[in-house]
Amino acid sequence: RGDALVLTGGRPRGTLYAVYTFLEDVVGIRWWTAGERFIPQKPTLEVPDLSSVYVPKLQYREAFYRGAFDGVFAARLKTNGHFERIPPEYGGHYNLIGWCHTFYQLLPPEKYFAEHPDWYSLLNGKRTAEGGQLCLTNAEMRAELTRVALEWCRKDPTAGMISIAQNDWGGNCQCEACKAVEEAEGSPSGLIIQFVNQVAEEIEQEFPDFLIETLAYHYTRHAPKTMKPRGNVIVRLCSIECDFSRPLGTAESNKTFREDIEAWSAISPQLYIWDYVTNFANYIQPHPNWRALAPNIRLFVEHNCIGLFEQGDASCSISELPELRAWLLAHLMWDPGLDEQALTREFMAGYYGAAAEPLLQYIELMSDTVQQQNAYLRCFMTDTSSWLGLEPLNRATELFNEAQAAVADDETLATRVRRARMPLDHVWLMRYQSLKRQAKGQGLPFLGPEDPIAAAQTFVASAQEFDAGNFSEGRAFADYSPGLVARFRDPGPPPDECEGLPEEDWIDIQDNEFTLHGLGSWVTLADDEQASDKQAARMGGGHPNWATQYPVSADMAGLGSCHCYVRIRCDAKAQTGPAFTVGLYDSTGNKGVAQIIETLENAADGEYRTYDLGVHELKPGMYFWVCPPNNGDAVEAVYTDRIFCVRER
Among the four 32, 49, 564, 602, which has the fewest Cβ within 10 Å? Predict the structure, then answer.
């Protein structure tokens, strides 16, 4: 008013946010990352007439990226979540006691199970704490859990929020009492809400302002028929199963989530959302969810969401444009009405300079490609083979070449572009052999590395330079990188079935190209002198998972009708019973194409054998698989050496 400039707001951070909003919107300062910013040089600062009041729709806002954890930077981005280290002098941040998946934190089985097995899940007729939950109809268990939860609240009374939530797996109790509630409510969430309501009622007596948070996650995602959360209970709905290439609010592929958020918002005056904005199985690859980010935030807000956790790749620094993602999501959480395209262009121009235009084209190329392929973009995808083909990869490479050339004379910008290119370079290395075969077979250009060994070594060195952190959730890049370089070792002699055949008539898939699920637990790459290349995919015998796989690649589909073989052996402890199973599955048609169940009567000698899966027309969506017998007493390990396919003439 007049010459007075008044910047003020509510506590604890409102006035600080008013100052940062003024510095950003009026002065023109930009904080791109914790250590990189733009301050305009102006001889005169002209301040227009200002009269604005703003209250963010989302009270809790968190962008889960490594760079966004810095406390001062988080305050400038106006995020305030559990993991953002905002010091008290900058207003602090939300603290959710226990964070999530707290059943076994509150009642650890190693402390309670021996004396109170009935507090834990009844599964297959037996009380167990392995892979289970709590027996939520057990009143004695509930009393002890409530007592422990109250102790937690007393230790941190200013937190204002505590998690009472299911473990991060299935195994909900199947006792008669628990099943009765679940069946009556049409969903296991009914039992969760009944239980959490009871605990919340007890906590409210001592801490009337505390909120009790629980999850609608996996088996509890569907809302109950009649149960409603109490006023002091916050349900956090999780989107982990969704297709992230398309908006949750409109895509047919996300219809069930849309139904769930509508159902929960109808019974909950306020929701939290746990959204997934990265690829946890492989952080270092393109993940084109760009066109879903802003629409999803708007959908959440329209359905009573007051808190949003956007789980990105906080443990990795070389994922796909994490600096842009953190900045963009923070701005959209603060104001979902902002233009996401304008925000993206602004960041790219400010952070990448002359390289911005080709990089913006890259973002659009990846987004177009995943949608044109009608791919279901999950948040756990081991590679890009289901949606990213050779031609768009070539074009993406051309765009990054343009970007690098545009900033070649600026060391800072060139380094930023080189870091941004890491996911693209990683795709070339991961899929080098199949892409090379496809280019040769179809007469297409191949813009991948000429020397893959040198390229892999350079990639690893760059990852170390940029302090890569993790390759995937729970797996350090340092543990992954030796296998990446080893992908380009000598494949060994051809199989007998391929001896003398023209190179274009057969394809050899070695273990270094396999898709390995549960790497480090279900399957590992192991040295094996009997294997053709002296290494194989090794699965322990004590689980039933299809952990060794290979999806039919474009070059393999180009063979037409072909004879399919898999070479496998096992280390046996017994002489009879199942040894392993190998097969070919069609995920598009949801059906098995071929399967062989091997027995120890044939395979106990530990020698490799070639298993003939027959002649098939291989198509995208099919994959080869091998699984152990789920009997570690009979089979020590199952080894898969190679998969090879021979064109039928």
Answer: 49
C-alpha dihedral over 129, 130, 136, 139, to 10 degrees? Answer: 0
Question: Does residue 31 sit in helix, strand or coil?
Answer: strand
* pLDDT score recorded for residue 1: 56
CATH of residue 606: 2.60.120.260
How many Å apart are CA 270 and CA 499, to the nearest integer?
Answer: 67
**Which residues lie closer than 8 Å to 56 by C-beta, 6 or more apart?**
78, 333, 334, 335
| Phi, psi (degrees; rounded to nearest 5) at 552 | -60, 120
Distances in Å between the Cα of 583 and the Cα atoms of 165, 252, 464, 563, 603 are 38, 31, 39, 13, 17
User: Could you read off the pLDDT of 488-517 as tens digits, one per residue?
Assistant: 988 889 999 999 999 889 999 999 899 999
Phi, psi of 16 (to 5 degrees): -60, -45
Among 365, 336, 224, CA closest to 275: 336
Return the structure tokens found at 184: 């009556």
Residue 572 within a domain: yes
As given in the structure block, the two tokens for residue 220 are 């509890």
Contacts of 298 (CB under 8 A, 6+ apart): 249, 336, 337
Q: What are phi and psi of 104, to 5 degrees?
A: -85, -15
Domain count, the chain: 1
Domain assignment of residue 172, yes or no = no
d(CA 239, CA 258): 10
Residue with tokens 């549960």: 518
**3-state SS, one letter per residue, for 484-553:** HHHCCCCCCCCCHHHCCCCHHHEEEEEHHHCEECCECCCEEEEECCCCCCCEEEEEECCCCCCCEEEECC
β strands within 95-199, DSSP E: 122-123, 126-127, 161-163
- Beta carbons within 10 angstroms of residue 453's beta carbon: 14
Domain that holds residue 588: 502-649
Domain presence at residue 64: no
Whole-number Å distance between alpha carbons of 32 and 27: 15
Cα 512 to Cα 535: distance, rounded to the nearest angstrom: 9
Helix axes 452-465, 422-430, angle to 10 degrees: 140
pLDDT in tens, 3-20: 788 999 999 999 999 999
* Domain contains 114: no
